[in-house]
Design a protein that fits this description.
Layout lengths: L1 H6 L24 E5 L3 E5 L6 H19 L4 E5 L2 H16 L9 E5 L6 H10 L3 E6 L3 H12 L8 E3 L18 H11 L1 H4 L13 H11 L7 H13 L1 H4 L2 H21 L7
Helix pairs in contact: 3-9, 3-11, 6-9
Length: 274
Amino acid sequence: MRHFRQDFENQIIYTTHLPFMIPADDLSVVRTVNITQEAGTTVTNDPTGDLRTLFPLQAALGYHVSQTLFIGPANLLVEGITDFWILSSVSNYLRSLGKVGLPEDMVITPAGGAGKVSYMVALLSSQQLGVLVLLDDERAGREAQKELVTSRLVRDSAVIFVSDAFAHPREADIEDLVDPAVYEELVRHTYRKELKGKNLNLNTNIPRIVKRFEIAFADTGLEFNKTRPAREFLARMATDPERMLHAAGLQTFETLFKAIVARYAKARPPLAAE
């Protein structure tokens, strides 16, 4: 497309089903062509047609949007969207108190699970963007860390575990940074209809609180999804942050953010492996 634009003065018309031949930055020049028995062949600048006709537009727009998400000079890659909700809301609150939050120029990017972290790191690094990775401290997170380092996608120092927020090593997800009583109240509120008349028996010997609820819910014939309490946490952080974060919780999150800031300052530039 750059060749067409720069090297020719005349108008060029071409047909394609290839998303990379769709100028996502100038969709006004795109036309969709449809052939039906009733109307014959129609050409329009409205995005109409069957799935085969619209797919190149959808794919081109999806790729364009994904590229514009990676706009930070440094990215904190996390496993999922719930990590993004919790970390971003707490970081903003800590900064409002004059405490340590995440660097303002750092973009939190959810990978969609520990198994997808290496792919996202490769994508971000290919854009010449700095990458720090924050992983849950459990088997999948440890496996992801090993894959990242052995494949030389990032240096070992660019990988941080949630457990770095605690004085003693332990298995931990982002949700374990929230006070257990607060998290339980969020769960019981967001699942109040399903839990009506049921007793949850939480095994406190299980180190990760999400795992505790998953097992307790399964014992009652229910399925637990951590997005519900995380979404409620995000909403309440906007209206009643003091209730969501007690003094100990603030300190725990700030400890993690200090660790991230220290790695961020030490690793620049670049954060990715050479």
